[in-house]
Structures are given as C-alpha cells and as structure tokens.
Amino acid sequence: MSRRVLVVEDDHDLAGLVALHLRDIGCEVELAHDGTKGLARARAGDSDLVILDVMLPGVSGLDICRDLRSGTRYTPILMLTAKSTELDRVTGLETGADDYLTKPFSILELNARVKALFRRVEALHGGGGDSSAAGSGDAAPAFTVGDLRIDPGRRSIERCGETLPLTAREFDLIHHLACHPGRVFSRSQLLDRVWGYGHEGYEHTVNSHINRLRAKIERNPSEPEMIVTVWGVGYKFSERAA
Questions:
Q1: CB atoms < 10 A from the CB of 70, how many?
Q2: Which CATH class is domain 3-125?
Q3: How do residues 183-212 score in pLDDT, each as one tens digit?
Q4: Pick from 112, 115, 111, 135: which is nearest to 124 by CA?
Q5: Tens digits of per-residue pLDDT, 39-81?
Q6: In the chain, is it the N or the C terminus that has fewer CB atoms within a 10 Å radius of its CB?
Q7: What is the mean pLDDT of residues 161-187?
Q8: Residue 80: phi, psi to the nearest 5?
C-alpha cells in the first residue's frame, strides 16, 4: 500500500532529492517549501508521515510539530535539522517528533528511518502491542488496566470517564508499558521500542517523560504504583496495577 508523505523543506534541491528516493520505496510525496504552506497541508490530516525541516521561512518546523501534536490525530513526524548539538535534537524529540536526521544525511539512512516509522504504525494496527505509534485506520481494541482505560484507536486514556491530558509520546510510553505488565524495560529498550530507530544516548529523555507521565496518572507521583522504577535496570508497569 502506498504511503503519503508530506515533505516540508525550503531547500528545493534537497526536497526534490528526498522526494525522488521516497518515491523509489513506493511513497506518494507532496512538497511544501515554507512553514506556512507546510502547516496548512499538515493540518489537512491526509499524510501518513510528515518530514519537517526545523528552520523554515514563515512557521518553524518545531512550531508545526507542536501544532500537530496539539490535535487529536497522530501523524508520525521526522525532523530534519542542520543543527548538531544535543540540545537541538532533544528539543525536537520533546516537542513530539518521532525521529530526527541531522544534515547532511545519507539517503540510505533516510529510507531506514522512514521504513522504521511505518513499521511502528503497522505493528499497532496488527494488534501486536510492541509499538505505540499510531496513524489512521483500525487499531488495537481498548483495554483496562487498574482504573485506566487505554484506547489505542483514539490514542486516549481515561480515568472514571475523564480523559487524561497526555502528549503523544506519553501515550506511546504508557501504552507500551501497560501492554507488558511486570516486564522490565531498560531506558535503551524504551528508546528503541517507543521512540524508534536511532536514539541511542538519550536515556535522560526517557526519565523526563516518565516523570511527567507519573505526574498525570499516578495518585501520588512521589510513590508511584503503576510505573515502577527497578533500580539499576529500568521501568515496568506494575502487575498489581494491571
């Protein structure tokens, strides 16, 4: 099945090259060369993946990412950046991007990242539970753990009928952990399975997401009952909460 990819990149030559190689792997590609047009096209919600340059005329890639993540529909986002500092990369991930590539990058790496993001979507649609990214189409059925109702199709979590205000990545994280109650995951494993390909070395990103997630779902975040720390190893979703 052909995938629809929106590429928002102001460098026309680079955008054309990216589009050429995405079409080689069976994608339908639409190009936007400034942030204003890119935001309008991204908001249309008909893309299976959005590839965003960070530095864009009009609206920045980070602002487009924030806008998309404030909505209800989840579309995977791959950020392109000419910046190479750790802070810039982490900012993109914290904003809600699923992955990033630092320019210059190889086409082989681009294709690998794109395919990895699509595999995460397909894994959830297949109901396997090993991935938490979601897109359009049928998803796994809703399920209950403790007093939480997790709905992968709507990408929402409710407690006593009230929807909890989770970001897309926070949802991905708790969904993955809740699908494997009692199983301990290291920070590196969570980066690989929730954030996806190529985030080695950013374990502290997992810590910050866990802390924010606990603040939203735990009755007493200082004494978590659901997301438990296994010291020296990582985190797990408590069997008692499941």
A1: 10
A2: alpha beta
A3: 999 988 888 888 765 555 567 778 888 988
A4: 135
A5: 999 999 899 999 999 989 999 999 999 898 877 677 889 999 8
A6: N
A7: 88
A8: -115, 130
- Taking the whole predicted model, whether its pTM rises above 0.85 is answered as no
Token duo for residue 85: 């500092």
| CATH 3.40.50.2300 domain locations along the chain | 3-125
Domain span(s) for CATH 1.10.10.10 in the chain: 143-237
Q: Which residue has the higher pLDDT, 242 or 35?
A: 35
Q: What single DSSP character describes residue 195?
A: I
**Digit-coded pLDDT (tens) for 144-156:** 988 899 988 778 8
Give how far Cα 201 sits from Cα of 9, 88, 113, 236, Å.
27, 14, 17, 20
Residue 235 zone, left/alpha/beta (φ > 0; ψ -120 to 50; rest): beta
Other CB atoms within a 10 A radius of the CB of residue 59 amount to 18
Sign (positive or negative) of CA dihedral 10, 16, 18, 22: positive
Task: Please state which CATH class domain 143-237 belongs to.
Answer: mainly alpha
